[in-house]
Amino acid sequence: MALSEFFLFPLGLVALLGAVPLVILYLLRPEPVRRTLPTFRFLADAAGRSASNPIFDRLLRSLLLLIQLLALVALVGSLATPYVLVPESETVQETVLVVDTSASMGVRDGGGTRFDSALAAARDEVSGTTSVVAAGANADVVLRRGSATDARAALDGLQASDAPGDLRSAITAAASVAGEDARVVVLSDFADDSPWSDAVREARARGLVVQLRQFAGGGQGNVGIVDRRFSGTNVTVTVKNYGDSAVTRTLSLAGTAREVRMDPGDVATATLPVPAGGGRVALSPGDAFPPDDALYVAAPEDASVDVLVLTNDENRYLTAALSVIPEVSLTVDNPPTAVSPNYDVVIYSNVNPGRLLAGNVEAGREIVADGGGVAIQAQEESPNYGDLRLVSQGSVETNPTIGTVESHPITRDITFPPPTEYIAGDLRAGQSLVNTTGGTSLVAVERRGAGRVLYYGFMEDSSAFKYNYQYPVFWKRSVFYLAGRSTLSELNRATGGSLATGANQTVETPAGETTGPEVRLGDAGFYRVGDERFAASLLSEAESDVAAAPLDGESAPADYPTRVEEREVPDPLTEWAALVALAATMVELAYLRRRGDL
Question: Ubl conjugation among the record's keywords (predicted)?
Answer without folding.
Answer: no
